[in-house]
Amino acid sequence: MQKVVEMKGITKVFPGVKANDDVNFELLKGEIHVLLGENGAGKTTLMNILYGLYQPDAGEIYVNGQKVNIKSPGDAIKLGIGMVHQHFMLVHNFTVAENIVLGSEPKKGIKIDMQKAIKDTKELADRYGFKIDPNAVIEDITVGQQQKVEILKALYRGADILILDEPTAVLTPQEIEELGVILKNLVKEGKSIILITHKLKEVMAMSDRVTIVRRGKVIDTVYTKDTNIDELAEMMVGRKVNLVVQKDEAKPGKVVLKVENISALDHRKLPALKGVNLEVRAGEIVGIAGVDGNGQTELIEVITGLRKPTEGRVYINDKDVTGKTPRDIIEAGVGHIPEDRHKRGLVLKYSLYENAVLGNHYKLPFAKGIMMNYNKIKEYARKLIDEFDVRTPNEEVFASALSGGNQQKFIAAREINKDPELIIAAQPTRGIDVGAIEYIHKRLVEERDKGRAILLVSLELDEILALSDRIAVIYDGQIVDILDAKSATEHELGILMAGGTLKKQA
Amino acid sequence: MANKNTTSSKLRAALNTLIFPIISIIIAMFIAVFFVMWAEGENFFTATVTLFQAIWEGSFGTSFSIIETLVFVTPLLFTGLANAVAFKTGLFNIGVEGQFIMGIFAAAAVGLIPGIPAFIHVPLVLISGMLIGALWAAIPGFLKAKVGTNEVINTIMMNFIAMFFVNYMIMGPLNAPGKATTPLIQDSAKLWRFLGETNRVNVGLFIGLLLVALVYILLWKTTIGYELRAVGLNPHAAEYGGISIKKNIILAMAISGAIAGLGGAVHVAGIQYQAIQLFGFTGFGFDGIAVALLGKSHPVGVLLSAILFGALNSSSLNLQLANIPKDIVYLIQAIIIIFVAADYIYKWIGEKRKKEAMING
């Protein structure tokens, strides 16, 4: 078969990081080729080079057999390369058709020919089996549909080679299936597709070939039909991994967290929570499943005191903590692994030991009166580092010097060592390596078994299913249903996450 | 092993922070030499000698010039530290100038009260300067915390209010008849000039040096400093850690203002003995910004850069005697600031690139 893309010896160095190290990659005509690797492995960097967003420090690129020099996305588009980024780049108050033609509008004289734009959009959508209304406004359609708009945009510009960066991160299971069908249709029409992902199940379901990247280097390229999930995981991580979380039956005790009829606004002052009710008991893990942006962030902020609710009450151990300050709530016994470790979880330009006491820096034994006791603090930081196996030269380095996984382990260590009754774990494993994921999962289950209540929020359905005892599904600012994790299926959760309902048996 | 690593990495970190200020000082001097060549029509070598000789003699060459340099250093210690505290909390207190002026006013007024023994009167004068400075800075701090108005704009406006208010008091209620000043303060309110009355250097210098140590302890050894710096570095994380952003913004401004106000009070009680009508800003507050920037907002850095700026300022008279325009001094200071600012921008871009690499890895 014909090679449509060939990248040879690509090397790209960022200050302090070798993102790509002598990488070779090829894409055949009419195949779906997955670029598999952990976060930070260098997949996106490689594709950004192909799309002209970065210039490689060394290496050559061939498109359709011709050596090319891609200096900008404009060059890439001319070569028939289209890229759909993880974060969509759409104009929110434009219609679907307007977004698709944006930048290469059909013109009638000096005016935009909107009729033709709509007609073209419709034709294109029909040809590849997209169900989409060209006149719908972007902000009114679902994330799954927005993604289709992005794909159509690339196709409209004449892309024969499509790069999709983590396309399934924001989709429900049903939408993921639908995407699979669309991709197959595109391939049938002669397009070639590169998928960037770290999700193994999707690799197996969607791809023809897989190239595995680890720490900036290509480990291997294999045919999907000749491999399996365990083998891919091992190549991705570099050692055998245990993908199943071991846990026993939960023994739920008293109610630790009770959220009653909470409503709250988001940062744009629009309603984000619309009457949420939730209970978490000691000794159980309650998972909150939902598509990103359905109120998860706001719910956690309300519980932890970072956001004031407009209505409703929050109780921790029967104590009303509604509208209390974050410090009061920490003192009420809440540990919080925040969803964004760089924004909330760490002061990156603080040393590890200073970060170790964030939240209880003012208390004995870390401080007496206003004087801090840095000997005690450093000792404590070393304890956290030992206990959670945080890889760092010492406790004096800036938090920014650690890898994502080690930063997250350090935060988990700090929050668990506050001896909280309730642990809120928001996306505790986002963007970290598999080893750290395994460890954090294991610790969360251990803490559950010690009788702590755990509220887990995650966009990864697999994580929710693996850890939770009960699963609450959040959609459009409401908890739409609470399922028992033992009997819940991915399919059921997917329907609920998309705003559907399940027929309950009487 | 681990210990050796930390000491060597600490050394390297210290060197890294020092390298830019030092390079910028050297380059600034170098450029100044070219201006002297141009102004004097001398060659490079003689211009260098002329300039450095003039600066050295004017700042440290004689015992008199050393004393005068220390007089110039003293207020810069206060205004530099005041700016450093605000910078560390992520605030830009351009109002140090106004708070300094209010400190001058408070000291000049309280210093007039007769019949108080010195061991009460001197502290009273200094404390009144601190309080009014703290209040003057806390107002824009409060406005930023409560309604989110920009502290830069508000402190600039507060500077003008301070200047015109103090001028009104000097020419009005507190006027010394026939003069554009307030009357001289009581002897009991004056700071001791430890090298004799004719030498203006006074114990205010030691108060400033003590403050260098106190600010260091405040920022790095107390919970207050931990919270201030956390708010300055990452307010989101501070908030998450139960640290009130609003409280710390107001507190940082108040501390900054108190230091500035104390500086103004020391200036009256040690040097001027009265408040003199202002025809413009004193400049000490604005020089303090430069001192804090060059000193990387670290108390020890502030001490060193205050000495540099003080020395340059006190040598300006000597430059004129050597037929070099005294503006050369400001030229040197300005070039240093440009380089220090460039360093900040360079770091900022570096951070951004690193972040990009992290996100896109």
CATH class of the largest domain in chain A: Alpha Beta
Query: What is the subunit organization of this protein?
Result: heterodimer
| CATH-defined architecture of the largest domain in chain A | 3-Layer(aba) Sandwich
Give the % helix of chain B: over 70%
Strand elements of chain B, count: 0
Q: What is the number of beta strands of chain A? A: 24
Number of domains of chain B: 2
Distance between the termini of chain B: 32 Å
β-strand percent of chain A reads 25-35%
What is the number of helices of chain A? 17
User: Main sheet of chain B?
Assistant: none
Uncertain spans of chain B, ≥5 residues at pLDDT below 50? none
Per DSSP, the total helix count of chain B is 13
How many discrete domains of chain A?
A: 2
Give the CATH H-level superfamily of the largest domain in chain A.
P-loop containing nucleotide triphosphate hydrolases
> Which structural category fits the helices and strands of chain A?
alpha/beta
* Radius of gyration of chain B, in angstroms, nearest whole number: 22 Å
Membrane topology (chain B): Multi-pass membrane protein
Transmembrane segments (chain B): 18-39, 59-78, 90-113, 119-139, 151-170, 201-219, 249-269, 275-295, 302-322, 328-346
Protein name (chain B): Sugar ABC transporter, permease protein
InterPro entries (chain B): ABC_transp_permease
Can you characterise this structure?
The complex is a heterodimer of chains A (506) and B (361). Chain A is built from 17 helices and 24 strands. The radius of gyration of chain A is 25 Å and the shape is globular. Chain A has 2 domains: 3-237, Rossmann fold, CATH 3.40.50.300; 255-348 and 401-497, Rossmann fold, CATH 3.40.50.300. With 506 residues, chain A is α/β, with parallel strands linked by helices. In chain A, the strands form 6 sheets. Chain A has a 6-stranded mixed beta sheet with strand order 6-9-10-3-11-12, sandwiched between helices. Chain A has a 6-stranded mixed beta sheet with strand order 18-21-22-15-23-24, with helices on both faces. A 4-stranded antiparallel beta sheet of chain A has the order 2-1-4-5, with helices on one face. Chain B has 2 domains: 17-61 and 298-346, no CATH class; 74-297, no CATH class. In chain B, 78% of the residues lie in helices and 0% in strands. Chain B has 13 helices and no strands. The model of chain B has no long low-confidence stretch (mean pLDDT 90).
